[in-house]
Amino acid sequence: MKPMQNKIDTIKNTFIADLVAAATLEALEAIRIKYLGKSKGETTLLLKELQSLSLDDKKHYGPLLNQLKHYQESELENKYKILNSEIKNETDLTIPGTPRPVGHLHPTSVVIREMNEFFRYHGFSIGEGPEIENADYNFRRLNLPEGHPATDLQDTLFIKEPDILLRTHTSSVETRILSAYHDKLPLRVVVPGKCYRNETGNATNNSFFYQYQGFVVDKGITIQHLKDVLTKFHQFLFGKDVVLRFRYKYYPEVSPGMGVDMQCQFCKGVGCGVCKYRGYIEVLGSGMIHYNTLLACGIDPDIYTGFAWGMGLDRLVMSKFGITDIRKLYSGDIVYL
Amino acid sequence: MKIPITWLKDYVETDKKPAEIAKVFTSLGLMLDKPIDGDVLDLEHRMDRADWLSVIGCARDFAAFEGLKLHEQKVYGKPGKSVVAKKRITITGKTTAAHRFNTRVFRGVKIGPSPKWLVDRLEAYGMESKNNIVDITNYTMVEYGQPLHAQDIAKLPAPEITLRKATSGETITTLLGTTVVLDRETDILASGGKPVVIMGIVGGAETGVTETTVDILLDAGNYDARVIRKTSRRLRIMNETVSRCDKFLDPRLTEVALARATELILEIAGGTYYENEDWYPHPKLPQSEVLHFARLAQLSGMDIPIAQVKRTLRALEYQIIEESDDALTVEVPYFRTDIEVEDDLVADILRIGDYTNIPATPLASPVPVDITSALYRFEDRLRDVCAAMGCDEHITDPLVKATGRVGEIHLANSLSEDQNALRTSLVPGLVHVQNTYKKHGIATPVFELGSVYDGTASTQSETRQLTVVGSDPSGYLATILSALGIKNYSLSSHEADPVLVLVNLKLVGTISTSSFTLNTAALIEHVSPYQSLKTEIAHVPSLDISLTLPTGTHFEKAAKILAKSAPKPSSIAVIERYENSLLVRLTWDKQIDADKVRLSLVKALEAAGIATRSK
After folding, report:
1. Is the CB of A228 inside 8 Å of chain B's CB atoms?
2. Are residues B273 and B299 in the same domain?
């Protein structure tokens, strides 16, 4: 590199370092003299040196040196303004700022994301399906023949009786996905989604609500895997100390069925108003996917086994966000703070 | 199902306290429905096990779980006295809704109060004592789960019972005193042409047992649960009889219940028992099931000793009829109408073994292929973009009050007039939210991602949409599209309301003065997965044109002219606005002859009546 270019670069670098270090107007003036002083300023001297260069070099370095000079002048000017105003009007950083407006996600979206994160980590996909369903996917493939007493467990909202309805659970998405992927197994899927029941709304029940469904189908899946997934999931949601109770419970779409309860966190299992004096709170229904369900979805149940669970999301969302009335959650009556 | 502990202890010996007994029932599948009230457990019934609507059915499982012996009850085993033909009550079945109608006749019974032990048990269960005969039918029903019905033979219009459909307009006054007008869908028991009982649902007052009754006809019927379910819901009659007859009871249960009731009637009310008809056109055959040990291991992942399997099955009254190295063949007990598949036997074995004892094992199989849709991820990204713009997310009820709009989907059986249709737009729900916000003094825009529903076509459809409601929808729309890497979009009035949002000439949504809506599935086609970036400082050829739109002329018109400029601009943006005057910036990917382009644009705009001011 040519000596002149070297000098320009060195001056640039030392100038920036000096400028950053300058904390007073006096120091700033010293820098001005150091670089742009009329007789001995470093940049001034370089400009003088220009006279002795060849014509070619003059053409090349002339504009560069002028640029440097202007640059230093404007930087000094800027710094002068800053230092001057700081002296005149010192910024009081002890005054608290005003928060900028930010948008918020709905509590249910927040909880769904939290859960999705857990299950994505464990190799699950997120599945979706229609809310307007037919009786085949919502009931029949779930081992619920017409007129079965267990249809009483869900009061259906019909669009056209008896076939077109609003899905009563996210299990309908399970039968849709199992049927569509019957020849592309294995599967690990979770389904967050809206469901509907023909109920008059009150503080704890709404005709529209959210469920979180999950299922796994593969070779060699046992009820022990189900227990493990649900245990880890609840530890993720409620902490390592969570106490779960596993018990037999009937659901038409699974056999063996399994109910899962969590020890009441208020009374630690003694029994109180929150847990209706049971000591435990029901959290979800689950089980091994019914032989007839797998069969109805085109899967050989002697080769493939699987488990499924379904849980209401709203009560969980309400407890995490301190909301006491489910209707508030979905009627636009919540305001974010 | 209510279980009075004293009654339970008639069948099993246990010292456990009610709370401990409740714990066992919970493990078995019968969780407490209500807090324990003294000596009575109120257990939640899950509709599958008809035998769990009987005290003895619950006691049987309790005994199996606890490893206790179940005490059998005394039943009358001897046949009744033969009866002369003319004293026989003939039974004629004329409806497919009845499977069995098993009857017995008692003559010379003495109606009176029931003994204390009987009254105590019924009252603990929550039933009022009426008289010894009615009490015995109720007691046997709760004990075995089979509804029984006694009628006063003297009050029967004729010595016969016909099971048939009612004729339209026939009436019956029930035991509760209400008069029901029957229709042709309702199955009844008629005598001498008159309805005397609504089959499987409620008895008539006319033939009921009273203090003066001497001879009774006792029946135990087995009916089509689906029919009983439908009829009782239609007539709005719910009682202890209905809640059992609408489950899958086995016709063979009628024999057990009648034998038990006979024992009690003869013991408590005296009299003589005569044979009468048992109408049972298609007797049910025993059901057998094979349990393969491999299947038990396949579902449970456990190696359960065969001795334990056999002990459990026997305790639940399965009969082992064949045994091999790899399987057991069993006869399913008649009361277990819930057993459908081999896996249900696996459930029984795990249940009686207590689910607590099943280990937890992590999934070890390889992670399957991800089937999460691109749309799901995209909508999640949209949520973040909206929140970053400062908009709040809300979820509103898709069930709305019908407005009569074309294509609106109506519900066939809604309970509420305010929720009898599916929404066709997300806007009204969000406008409601905005009104709430106003009351709180908040002006933040709100958004929702959800489905709207359309029934215009022969099949109903759902469309996923994003709607933002608030002031300056144009600004938020521009921000969102820019954040998604969409540089070129146009807004077309098309003489339609609302204005259409087009990207690459494809419709993706609409915009109005207070909201905009985007169809997420249409939008995703135009989105770049990553935000556009610039790493070099480069001169972007651009041209600013100031123009004034005459009243009645939409910017759309100017935009079309500007878009046609040669060379074609890479973007057209309104950077300043004052009333009808706009400052528009056009940019190009390559160098242009600015003067030439400006001249031709000004000419074209002014020809269209749009005044320009060169800058």
Report:
1. yes
2. no
